[in-house]
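Entry 12.
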Amino acid sequence: MSAIRRIAPTLGAFTLASGALFLGTGSAHAAPAVVSAAPAGVTSSCSQSFLPLPDPVCQPGAYNPSVTQSTIGSTICVSGWTSTVRPPTSYTNPLKVQQIAAYGYSDTSTADYEEDHLVPLELGGAPRDPKNLWPEPRYSTGGKTAGNKDTVENKLKTAVCNHQVTLDAARSAIASDWTTALAAVGLS
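Predicted 3D structure (tokens):
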């Protein structure tokens, strides 16, 4: 598939008037009974212009209220903990389809996207909140891939668990811009 077709801009997409992000809290486990075409917190049209980041109007990020600086030793810093809160594909796949449409991606193959948490589970992101989940292209956008974000997530989690960086600083940095998050907290 041509790169132009994959990243063609969406007509009528939102532009962000403010650079500020709002990080709401989301339920750690509650799922909406029905996922609508525009889930709560997701507008009906999201802009691809922010790639490799999500549209901050559609996905501002959300936190798991069970994960705080004082609980990291019993949550995110425990090996395998994220698998206890990761939502099933029966939840994320339908959401991915709806969000691919909301972003107006011309490539609608779900295999070409990772339904990713903006604030990762590894840093206590809300597992099921649509404000924290988005269809991240697996292909390169601006020289960055979903795999690059995974590396950043792992480095931030290690720094938080080693008490080199606070949980709040790591979350804020990755939610603002995962491509600069390591530098923002003083890591390389």
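Annotation: The beta strands are 24-25, 62-63, 113-117, 133-137. The mean pLDDT is 81.
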